[in-house]
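Lab notebook, page 48
Experiment: co-folding of the full assembly
Goal: obtain a model of how the components sit together before planning crosslinking
Operator: M.T.
Materials (sequences as entered):
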Amino acid sequence: MRFVQVIAFFLLLAGCLNEPDCIITSTNLVKINFKKDSKTPREITFTKINVSGLEKDFYVEQKATAVQLPVDPESIESTFTFYFEGRTETMHLTYVKESEVISVNCGAYTNYSGLAIPETTFELFNITNRKLLLNATSNIEVFIE
Amino acid sequence: MQQAILKYLLSSVLLLVTLSTYAQEEGVTADSLRKIRKPTGLRIGTDLIALGKTIFDNPLTGWELNADMDFGRYYLAVDYGSWSRKDSLRNGYYDSDGRYWRLGVDINFLTSDPDKNMVFIGFRYGHSSFDEYLTYDTPVDDFGNIQTDIANSNAKAGWVEMTTGLRVKIWKPIWMGYTGRMKLFPVVKGSDEIKTYEIPGYGKTSKAVYWGFNYQIFYMIPLKKQK
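Observation: model returned without errors.
Model output:
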């Protein structure tokens, strides 16, 4: 019976020693896929894309079927303005930020979730993932003929 | 995660087996304490580990008072404590401060021991009121270094515990013992802008099951004369 007690004690200790993994999958990048229909990607030649709060232009004179754009980490809303094929389209996004401490050694970071599009000039779109994650393949799908 | 749950379950089962076997080895057949009876004493104590952490573990300071009262083999148990952490993170600083209490019942397996020594299992409901503050820097592409300052004031949390342990009479009114705690199902009500890192009295919220351990010294105040 003493043997069982010793084993139980060490199992208890093992439970105490688990530390969380230092893997951060959160990002402030929104992944937008452009499509003709649910299966066919739509390649777009961008003139540029503007992100509210930034002077910098993104995807200047570039062709792409998908873009990654940053949301403002100091706000809970951002607006993207897309210039392409003689058109100008806007997309207004809102999101929820949550701060989290992983551990003393890993530090703290910000989670972005609750992605919503309260306003946009795009006619057809679909939110596929409301969390912003490094390993997400898509957050938003926009359908363009 | 599944491995961890399996490990916790296995250790819990082994502990229960150990306890029940220990009780059998003591030859517990008498039922002198099995019924609910009028209390004979109030035991008041403190957690020596909490005091040790306060002295030797700089980020953590705290104290805990423990009390229990016997009703036959059943003990009404109450704990009250303070817990404060001030910790430097890799990229910032975390500060929490709060008070907590626990209320529950312990069941003594040594029902015929004249000294009322205890080998027990029990349960608790725990509640905590606390404030936490977090500040940190994160480099964000194109936006530069972002400093975030978040406070979570007047947060509340609740959880449940399964307990097990020993109480041994050392000398006249002095008792010593330990309490092992398996803490489960933490629920926090507070700011949506911060995921609570640590609940005073519970521990880190990243763990679905959190183990706690108290090494306690008690003073017994008799409520009626022992025969």
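Interpretation: The longest strand of chain B covers residues 144-171.
Next step: discuss with group before ordering constructs.
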